[in-house]
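Input/output pair, single chain:
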Amino acid sequence: MRRAAKIDDKIQTAIVKALRDLGCSVVSTAAVGNGFPDLIVGREPVAGSAKWVRPRTVLLEVKNPDMPPSKKRLNDKQVAFLASWKGECYRVETVFEAVSIMFGPETAARVCDEIGRENG
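Output:
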């Protein structure tokens, strides 16, 4: 396995763990190929939230934040997929970004702080 794939797996694993710890369903679709994003993430409605009142499912394309910008660009198949996709799809590089998309920045900050204490 090439080194970049190992780093990408580490980042993706951290994102999956954080989202699952928050109660999300997460399926890795990285092996699907043909431009399909890396993760499908679903969650139930957030209690008391006026912003998201229904269940939510999004697609996430995970990129390695340590790579140069030229290596983080979407490839042609990913661009074509996104152009035809009618639902929500996001490109993320960090746990903070992924959790922010699903729950907002306040929750993301709390989760990242907890992760920092666990790894500290």
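The two ends are 29 Å apart (CA to CA). Helices lie at 3-21, 69-72, 76-84, 95-103, 105-119.
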